[in-house]
Amino acid sequence: MRLLLCSLLLSLSSFAQGQLGSTAPPSSVPTQPYKDEAPIVTSHEITLNGQALKYKATAGMLPIRNAAGEAEAGLFFVAYTVEGSANRPLCIAFNGGPGAGSLWLHLGAIGPRRIRMKDDGTMPPAPYRLEDNQGTWLDKCDLVFVDPVGTGFSRATKLETARKFNGLTGDIDSVAEFIRLYLARNNRFASPLFLAGESYGTTRAAGLSGALANRGIALNGVLLISSILNFQTARFTKGNDLPFALFVPTYTAAAWYHKKIDPAYQKDLKAALKEARAFAEGDYATALMKGDRLTQAERDAIATKLGKLTGMSKSFLFKNDLRIEIQRFTKELRREEGITVGRLDSRLTGTDGDQGAATNEFDPSAAAILPPYTHAMNQYAREDLGYKTDAIYFALGGGILPWDYSSAQNQFADTSNALRAAFDRNPYMKVFVANGYYDLATPFFATEYTFAHMGLAPKHHQQITMKEYEAGHMMYIHVPSLFKLKADISAFIDSAIPTKN
């Protein structure tokens, strides 16, 4: 059991590496025949800001069929629709991984029910409870949460089709078909349409923005939560110095939070981040480019400044050639205290058994959320939504094959160009980007870099809203950030829906 948990936690901490740590062996990937069944519909009510909001929840499967009409997969979804209002805005949401079910956004940020965590996002004692989510987006739009093939209850019908869908392009194609079919079956083509993705879900959402445009489906808005579109910004590979520079401001935020930063920078987080940005894209980027041509005096100067901004010792920086890899940082920042910091959320801490190891055994911020969310989703689907099944709900890993990036053709996976193309084809589309200061999986400066290098027309930059939160990858587990996100999203949705003539 402990090994399984560690495997799942390792998979969650591998978002930015572009591969899931807990993929299943090909012989054990679960498949199941698709069977047409009527969805389960239940009625509910929530009170928001003193107003009662009645809604229906629909849980069911939609088929993904090939050209011959044969079902190749069934995609599980949960939809929430407010009663008595036609053509409301519609938001289709999913998580990432690859291999993560949509439960994280569903029960953490967007849906009408939310897992009760401690206010700072740490794990409460079991048993875990659900409560009405005062930060739900349901008062602004109807919601559909979809689990891609191999996540949640969604399954391919055969191993061959699992291979087809467990990859960059196959995944995008299958979710695009789900969206088309959902709109058709529920008469929602007249609704303003939004996509919301988190982590690898932002990779998917950016790709979908282009794929849907090619299918004649225009989006009003794309909401990217903890974004990674260009994987070059987050892959610590030989010869790719880009992430070493782009992670520095997030290291600074973590060091600031844990009071490991130089005292000169401890007074003001935003001032420290401004300094870190300037150093990362200036002297530090230049030093990385020089490589072995750096003089000893230059190396010493860079190590001194980098150490002040990140809390790393000069000895550590010299041993690592002035390059801080993410897993080493999470182990090193508070090593002397025997404490490791989280990768998904560097505010959260833990301990592990090998104090001398170069990296930590697991991500304590992932450990805080995996059991509560997994237990809550299993109970909620079966009891509250009435969706009875013996199938495993794959919250994170175990249901997919090793992810196929072959369409990137020996390059880093990158869907930012699809998003750029969607802007060109749809001049009214808007994009919202949410970044957590303490997110060491998809750092905010890497996202800023990506959007500055997409080749967007100047007018399209004006259609992008970017917000920061004093939390991590799942910023919504921090209650103040949950409500800030809700306020920011509400304003964005209003701005992305054209006023009636």
Main attributes of the structure:
17% strand; globular; 501 residues; alpha/beta; Rossmann fold; disordered N terminus; two-stranded antiparallel ribbon; 10-stranded mixed beta sheet
Structure description:
With about 500 residues, the chain is of the alpha/beta class. The chain has two domains: about 1-230 and about 370-495, 3-Layer(aba) Sandwich (Rossmann fold), CATH 3.40.50.1820; about 235-365, no CATH class. The protein contains 18 helices and 14 strands. The protein has helices at about 1-10, 105-110, 160-165, 170-185, 200-215, 240-245, 250-255, 270-280, 285-290, 295-310, 315-320, 325-330, 365, 370-385, 415-425, 445-450, 460, 480-495, and strands spanning about 40-50, 50-65, 70-80, 90-95, 115, 130, 140-145, 155, 195-200, 220-225, 340, 350, 430-435, 465-470. Strands 1, 2, 3, 4, 7, 8, 9, 10, 13 and 14 form a ten-stranded mixed beta sheet that branches. The protein has a two-stranded antiparallel sheet with strand order 5-6. A two-stranded antiparallel sheet has the order 11-12. A hairpin with a 7-residue loop joins β11 and β12. α5 packs parallel to α15. The longest helix is centred in the middle third of the chain and has 18 residues, at about 170-185. It is globular.
